[in-house]
What we know:
This protein is of the alpha/beta class. The protein folds into 3 domains: 3-39, no CATH class; 61-207, Rossmann fold; 226-456, NAD(P)-binding Rossmann-like Domain (Rossmann fold), CATH 3.40.50. Helix content is 41%, strand content 15%. It contains 16 helices and 13 strands. The protein has helices at residues 3-17, 22-26, 30-39, 68-79, 111-120, 143-162, 183-193, 235-246, 260-269, 284-296, 319-341, 359-362, 368-389, 406-409, 413-421, 431-442; strands at 61-64, 84-85, 94-100, 124-135, 168-174, 204-207, 226-230, 250-255, 273-276, 301-304, 351-355, 394-400, 453-456. The strands form 2 sheets. Strands 9-8-7-10-11-12-13 form a 7-stranded parallel β-sheet, with helices on both faces. Strand 5, helix 7 and strand 6 form a beta-alpha-beta unit. Helix 10 crosses helix 11. The longest helix is centred in the C-terminal third of the chain and has 23 residues, at 319-341. It binds 1,4-dihydronicotinamide adenine dinucleotide. Residues 230-231, 233-237, 255-256, 259, 278-280, 305-308, 328, 355, 357, 400, 402-403, 405-408 line the site of 1,4-dihydronicotinamide adenine dinucleotide.
Amino acid sequence: MSPQNKQNSQRKTSALHEKTDKYTEFVSRGFGKDLAKRLGLPQPAVLRRYTPNGPLVQGPILVLGQGAGADAVAQVLLDWHQDVRRHATPKEKLGAIVAVLDELEHPDQLSTPMLALGAALRDLNKNARVVTVSRVASISDAPAVAAARNGVDGIVRSLAKELRAGATANGILLANDIAAQAPSAVAALRFFLSARSAFVDGQFLTASSAGSTTAPDWDKPLNGSVAVVTGAARGIGASIARTLARDGATVLVVDVPAAGDHLAAVANEIHGTALQLDITSLDAGERILEHAISRYGRLDIVVHNAGITRDKLLANMDAAKWDSVIAVNIASQLRMNEAFLASSDFANNPRIISVASTSGIAGNRGQSNYAASKAGVMGMVRSTAPLLSERGGTVNAVAPGFIETDMTAKIPFATREVARRLNSLQQGGKPSDVAEAIAFFAQPQAAGVTANVLRVCGQNMVGQ
Length: 464
Ligand code: NAI
């Protein structure tokens, strides 16, 4: 098969696996568009998703900011062959705006860059990007410095709610004295600018150290690495496996024996291998390690995706429902991580990425067991980070909101319709949106990004 045919067939295959939201398609053109406008109905945009060899952004990038950080970021974008502007040209359409605010010392300093940003917003193309680069506010900062830095949080979250037509606003937070052009900040910038972050809106990524200095391969960032994905027979897990394989990783997929046929199909499709395994088994971590080392001689990336729901109001909860959710969603991850961290085979810049949920952040009626497990995942990730740092590794979580999967297709129509529209992008996300965020955390260039919880939820109105 020619490379072009192979690419087209890959695109078709992944499109086949993703459920489409018929309403979003209906209101995106012609009669449906007019009708939605007249009736004041939500008008979600068709989001641009990542395709290899596609453009990074659609149009010139305006870099705002006067300091050395802004100059350095502009240079990075030029090195990526982007069309960069340092001042807005009236009526010129823009693909993105990057506001570099790394030198803020007082909230008074927000006015000039924010008014310049505001003036350029009308010129944004569809699916445009706004990205801020600023510093983490900490209790050791002078009050005015912390006020200015924290102000950026309010700006990004409000701006994300203001933008339309598939445009998003997100921010990068630099810890300590990390430079705006440090590799980890640059990796986060590229993720937020690209179509890989289509369903990430109103969120921040923190670069806690400068990260890798090896030359990046942005098209195949995971070349040569070996990954394991649990719960990969279907849904989000299958999409994660496909995305990591697309980015160059060799992938070992894990699921329960009952899902064996689907699991084998996923493994065949991505030229990986399947391991039928219940992750609640006491030796699950050791079995995954043994499989990865005997086949491939290494294990670099662990994605804890397998998860279950057993919803009941707490007043009606029974032990079986409570215990099974805790066992699958969090206790298994704790036990497997112990096995991985005890092994010298998982010691070369390893990555762990866990799938959490916005239910674990905002809570959800009838999901006290599930929310306990998912909030638990976030707690585990933060306190595991120092253990990974010792090996040059990272651990992060991705918290999906409403994602179009078999799980959410079972929600009754009216409830589902409300749940999927209740975010700034007015639609549900796709499994690939979660997968792209996970693939970002797995990249060598993201070596300085650890202990983050990134929501992939279109800025769901519940929670932060
Ligand atoms: P799914 O139910 O479609 O797939 C989960 C997979 O995990 C299944 O293939 C299942 O067989 C496997 N699995 C379950 N228990 C297992 C065990 N003990 N050992 C090995 N494999 C096991 O779920 P979906 O929607 O793809 O969700 C994936 C992850 O994303 C879960 O952790 C879920 O909690 C999370 N999530 C999903 C959201 C959504 O909107 N679909 C929203 C937020 C989080």
